[in-house]
Amino acid sequence: MTDRDPFAEGERAARENFPAEANPYLNGSDEHALWSAGHEKVAGAMEARESEGS
Questions:
Q1: Which long-range contacts (CB under 8 A, 24 or more apart) does 35-38 make?
Q2: Nearest to 12 by CA among 44, 43, 33
Q3: What is the SS3 assignment for 4?
Q4: What is this structure's pTM?
Q5: CA 2 to centroid of chain Cα atoms
Q6: SS3 of 27, please?
Q7: Phi, psi of 23, deg, nearest 5
Q8: Looking at per-residue confidence, does 44 or 28 come out higher?
Q9: Residue 2 has what pLDDT?
Q10: How far apart are CA 37 and CA 33, in angstroms?
Q11: What residues contact residue 20 under an 8 Å CB cut-off, 6+ apart?
């Protein structure tokens, strides 16, 4: 069994411009929530930087 880190996977997905809807985990699962949190952390920071730059 491999140790997967859904939070880190979500962060990586956001950096690679995958949409939040690309979450591979079952909706309602802990992994889904962690992936979403990681994605939002990075996507929110990227969005903030973009709005500051314009």
A1: 35/6, 35/7, 35/9, 35/10, 36/10, 37/7, 37/10, 38/6, 38/7, 38/8, 38/9, 38/10, 38/11, 38/12, 38/13, 38/14
A2: 43
A3: coil
A4: 0.84
A5: 20
A6: coil
A7: -55, 120
A8: 28
A9: 61
A10: 6
A11: 36, 39, 40, 43
